[in-house]
Design goal:
This protein is α/β, with parallel strands linked by helices. 33% of the residues lie in helices and 22% in strands. The strands form six sheets. A five-stranded parallel beta sheet has the order 2-1-3-4-5, with helices on both faces. A five-stranded mixed beta barrel has the order 16-17-18-20-19. A hairpin with a 3-residue loop joins strand 16 and strand 17. Helix 11 runs parallel beside helix 12. The structure holds iron/sulfur cluster (SF4). The site of iron/sulfur cluster has 9 residues, from helix 5.
Length: 444
């Protein structure tokens, strides 16, 4: 639960992905700006808001459990977030909840809060830092640039949960980014469901920014973010043609040379069944071009194995793609049906044993590639961002490591440093996921 002070008091539970975390931060910012205090415990709260996730069945379970716990401990609960679109399911499990609202429906959550716990009007409570309330460590922050998605991947229910693409105008995004940088944030993680599509719904309309105009389009926005003088990392970037325009920004050091690009599969038949563009050969060609233009680039992707209809040949095509693409970081899931997804009705659903076996084979192939690519960094010098200072070691990240999903750079010893400091290190060793390093001065 998240803490704060003064005014009627609200407990807040945030579940799910970084995108939901951004929603939570916006609701908390709004609550604080209206004078609500945020209670760190159920007992101290006048009411609890649970921001739920409903993406996979396990997340639904977790969300329903969290609602149950909040009801048992506090009794006055408002539910919001992805599970909110399934109001009946929530009310069936927990008839005592006060209100249920859907994802990114700030006004609806706020009006439910006002109805059950009116704000106290006190101008001092309305004081709020310009950067809003952050739930992530102070030195990095997620920056959500759009909501929803215009695709219809057959395994995904995000478009029905969160609606079609709705981008935030570039000026608004830049103001938030500037506030975060001014407040000491050293790294911005740009997130959305489909980052490359940013601005399409706005017809790439220009906004006023920095005494000029700025197009609401990803390469232009990334260029402007790159002027803030902090790390800018792009997530969920599908390989649309416009992505090529980002590579020079990376080569020039304006944004981090890092692309998180969910590819999901490499077999054309499976990509078609997934409802995704099927052009793995082109992706390989483009990756080669990006590496030529920006040799430092780190490529991360996610895949699904065991999708309905996946044959051994499809799976081997995927393994061959991994071998050719030589991606730095890879996440992989074995397919599991999501209630309401089109893929649930596809023929050729695979037994769990085959899915698990393919997942293990996939991970073994990629672990070797990732470990080899990390080992190639031993002996190099690099700038890292300190995440955690412990009594006998530091945990830091290089430009190649996104928080929470990638590895760390581990630096032994006791150091007088703070989270958010940048230091130069020399890499001395590597494991499957992490690097070991010493500060450059110590390495002399
Ligand atoms: S998986 Fe497909 S449908 Fe779901 S959010 Fe991503 S691009 Fe959109």
């Amino acid at each position: 639960m998240v803490a704060g002070s003064g005014g009627p008091s609200i407990g807040f539970i945030s579940l799910g992905c970084p995108k939901n975390l951004v929603d939570s931060e916006r609701i908390l910012t709004q609550l604080r700006s209206e004078g609500y205090a945020i209670s760190p415990s159920y007992e101290g709260a006048d009411m609890v808001v649970v921001n739920t996730c409903g993406f996979i069945d396990a997340a639904v379970e977790e969300s329903l459990e969290a609602i149950g716990e909040a009801l048992a401990e506090n009794g006055r609960v408002i539910v919001t977030g992805c599970l909110g679109v399934r109001e009946e399911q929530v009310r069936q499990a927990h008839p005592a909840v006060l209100a249920v609202t859907g994802p990114h429906a700030y006004e609806a959550v706020m009006s439910a809060v006002h109805r059950f716990l009116p704000p106290r009007q006190d101008p001092f409570d309305a004081l709020l830092p310009a950067q809003g309330v952050k739930l992530t460590p102070r030195h990095y922050a997620y920056l959500k640039i759009s909501e929803g998605c215009n695709h219809h991947c057959s395994f995904c229910i995000i478009p029905s949960l969160r609606g079609g693409l709705a981008s935030r105008p570039a000026g608004e995004v830049m103001r938030e980014a500037q506030n975060l940088a001014d407040a000491g944030v050293r790294e911005l993680l740009v997130v959305s469901q489909d980052t490359s599509a940013y601005g399409l719904d706005l017809k790439y309309r220009s906004a006023l920014w920095g005494g000029g105009v700025l197009k609401s389009r990803l390469p232009e926005l990334a260029g402007a973010l790159g002027e803030l003088g902090i790390w800018v990392r792009l997530h969920y970037v599908y390989p649309y043609p416009s992505v090529d325009e980002l590579i020079p920004l990376m080569a020039e050091g304006r944004i981090l040379p890092y692309l998180d690009m969910p590819l999901q599969h490499a077999s054309e038949a499976i990509l078609r069944a997934m409802g995704r563009p099927a052009a793995s050969e082109k992706v390989l060609e483009r990756i080669a071009g990006w590496r030529q233009a920006c040799p430092e680039i780190t490529l991360r992707s996610t895949f699904i194995v065991g999708f309905p209809g996946e044959t051994e040949a499809d799976f081997e095509r995927l393994l061959a793609f991994l071998g050719e693409a030589q991606l730095d970081r890879v996440g992989c899931f074995s397919y599991s049906p999501v209630a309401g997804a089109v893929a649930n009705a596809l023929p050729g659903q695979l037994p769990e044993a085959i899915k698990e076996e393919r997942l293990a084979r996939f991970m073994a192939v990629q672990a070797e590639i990732s470990a080899r690519r990390l080992a190639a960094k031993v002996g190099r010098e690099m700038i890292v961002l300190v995440d955690e200072v412990n009594a006998d070691h530091l945990l830091a990240r290089s430009m190649a490591d996104a928080p929470e999903i990638d590895g760390s750079v581990i630096i032994d010893g006791a150091w007088e440093l703070e989270p958010g400091d940048f230091i130069e290190v020399r890499v001395t060793g590597s494991s499957d996921h992490d690097l070991y390093a010493v500060p450059v001065n110590e390495a002399e």
